[in-house]
């Protein structure tokens, strides 16, 4: 293989595919980036056997071919090369010369023919979705994807589309995040479970303009964003019928400024040991226009009062894991939210005041 | 103690004194910040028994007194409090209430009377030096301060003043950095060895405008910068007579662009394992206007050619630890440097082309 290409394009392509490169693989193949030069294009691929990212760009292909180069090494070399033009050439012994200006690196590549092939995607369905919209949908649900591998159905988010409505849903057993969007055109019906890691990779390749194209098969998803293609395995598990657990009543209902609420929870978080159910954050509603937030631990205690815009229903004292509130309140861009409680042991629902495109359910901690 | 003060002033003061707070002390006292309220001023102190930092600011002192508060905790609480005004009050049981707006923290402090006293500085000498100048002097020498505790004389930098000349010198056994400045006024003669950690703390409290006042005794240094006072123990060791090891001849002399040289060394550094003397960076001068930089390791090899502005003397091949060049070239702000070599085993001297306020010596590696 011998190519001459632009440093900035190569750097950008490496940055993208590197996200799918295994960081600590036992296979040194998977620490590498696959370079394929053909038809005056270079294709770069990173693949950890679950998610693959491929980027293609135009280059001066002097000799077609392919080589595997250690991802971390090639990324660092490219960043530090002096000129905007880079030449890469490898011989039949996989010795690879990377040069630019007066600088020349001579490193050992690996045989590309040993690299695992990305699955062929013979797609059933194609969804076209604005990138910025899907990026926000991911950011407002991904935190509720569980990393507990003993329950694989919770390790991804459900992508559910039906006529012009697209929905992303994540559940981890203690909370549920649902993000809905309406498009002004119809898309195919799809119901797939995308792994959390793939969602994070998709998020990282999305920009603020233009659409993404999403293709699905029974087992895989393929996402096209400009010159970048991402392929991922899907999770083959049944997803909980979450509509059943969303209550449609409430016993206490408040409306509150999102940032004020967030900052009070942040202050409670300062003295609460993370994930220790013995030390919850307590919310107390006495019927007045103030929500009392308290936290008491061996460190000390913290008391706060946040003004409510609106209060309706029963007085209440209820305990939560404060982190579950932080995760959601951090990504809600609306100025105010409504929070509906169903007694001290029933689920709590957070929604923006305007519209119902985002619904977040948290189970309280039992005293 | 009971005080009411401004959040921004308290936050700034905590940030300064926190640098002298022990991060992992066995004494929980030293993890704390001392608060002393007196005469409508609050004094905050952090002290790790070697370096102490004190900051004072005006506050509304409702009840004089003192308390020790865990540094990390109070720093986080202050950052997250809602209003610009903060009230702190502690009772005789060291229970401390920190409140702002509707938020209130109730934490346990410690008895301030157990806190170690900062040494009294009855200074012999006072030096007044522009802050920005001393900051640059530190940044251009501190990297050559050794952290190898088996040789205490190398764990600090020598501050040497004589009439209107002030000098900071660091040696670690393999290299030497000397930074000299001339003032337009006389300062006392001083010769003290400031610990590297104290130098770093001094650097962190220095701004770009105004002077610092530096007081010395036999055992201590005191630095005043506005409302901030730093006290540190000095190293009681003889410092090497470094003038003796600075050669005043050369066999090869070059002038080179500082950034071009730095970037070539950075590229060599990419494939060189840090601190492994078996894999040096090699410089080669063949009498042409090009300096060849090469590095060969088990990873591969790297070759570079940097244009010289000027070459004089013998042809030469010489090996170095590339990190020693990176450290110095990074902090030299001059466009071009001269480098003088004394054969493949003699010391090498780097200086800016204009002036001799900075001199850096590196010993080569023996092949």
TrEMBL record, chains A, B:
CDD domains: beta_clamp (cd00140). The keyword Nucleotidyltransferase applies. GO terms for cellular component: cytoplasm; DNA polymerase III complex. The keyword Aminoacyl-tRNA synthetase does not apply. InterPro entries: DNA_clamp_sf (IPR046938), DNA_polIII_beta (IPR001001), DNA_polIII_beta_C (IPR022635), DNA_polIII_beta_cen (IPR022637), DNA_polIII_beta_N (IPR022634). Residues 244-366 form the DNA polymerase III beta sliding clamp C-terminal domain. Confers DNA tethering and processivity to DNA polymerases and other proteins. Acts as a clamp, forming a ring around DNA (a reaction catalyzed by the clamp-loading complex) which diffuses in an ATP-independent manner freely and bidirectionally along dsDNA. Initially characterized for its ability to contact the catalytic subunit of DNA polymerase III (Pol III), a complex, multichain enzyme responsible for most of the replicative synthesis in bacteria; Pol III exhibits 3'-5' exonuclease proofreading activity. Belongs to the beta sliding clamp family. This is Beta sliding clamp. It comes from Fastidiosipila sanguinis.
């Amino acid at each position: 293989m011998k190519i001459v290409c632009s440093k900035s394009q190569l750097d950008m392509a490496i940055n993208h595919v590197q996200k799918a490169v295994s960081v600590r693989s036992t296979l040194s193949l998977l620490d590498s980036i696959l370079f394929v030069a053909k038809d005056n294009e270079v294709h770069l691929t990173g693949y950890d056997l679950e998610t693959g990212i491929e980027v293609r760009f135009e280059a001066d292909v002097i000799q077609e071919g392919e080589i595997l180069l250690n991802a971390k090494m090639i990324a660092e070399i490219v960043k530090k090369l002096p000129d905007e033009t880079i030449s890469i050439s490898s011989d039949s012994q996989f010795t690879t010369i990377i040069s630019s200006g007066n600088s020349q690196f001579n490193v050992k590549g690996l045989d590309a023919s040993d690299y695992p092939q990305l699955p062929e995607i013979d797609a059933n369905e194609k969804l076209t979705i604005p990138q910025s919209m899907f990026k926000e949908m991911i950011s407002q649900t991904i935190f509720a994807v569980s990393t507990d591998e003993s329950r694989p159905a919770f390790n991804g988010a459900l992508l559910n589309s039906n006529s012009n409505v697209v929905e992303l849903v994540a559940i981890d057993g203690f909370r549920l995040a649902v993000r809905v969007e309406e498009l002004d055109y119809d898309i195919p019906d799809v119901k797939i479970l995308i792994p959390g890691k793939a969602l994070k990779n998709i998020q990282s390749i999305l920009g603020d303009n233009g659409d993404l194209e999403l293709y699905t098969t029974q087992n895989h998803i393929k996402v096209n964003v400009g010159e970048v293609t991402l392929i991922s395995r899907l999770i083959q598990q049944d997803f909980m019928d979450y509509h059943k657990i969303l209550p449609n009543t409430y016993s206490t209902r408040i409306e509150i400024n999102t940032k004020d609420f967030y900052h009070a929870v942040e202050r409670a978080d300062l003295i609460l040991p993370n994930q220790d159910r013995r030390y919850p954050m307590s919310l107390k509603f006495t019927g007045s226009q103030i929500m009392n937030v308290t936290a008491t631990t061996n460190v000390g205690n913290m008391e706060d009062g946040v003004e409510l815009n609106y209060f309706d229903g029963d007085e209440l004292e209820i305990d939560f894991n404060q982190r579950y509130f932080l995760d959601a309140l951090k990504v809600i861009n609306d100025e105010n939210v409504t929070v509906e409680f169903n007694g001290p042991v029933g689920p709590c629902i957070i929604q923006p005041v305007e519209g119902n495109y985002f619904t977040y359910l948290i189970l309280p901690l039992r005293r």
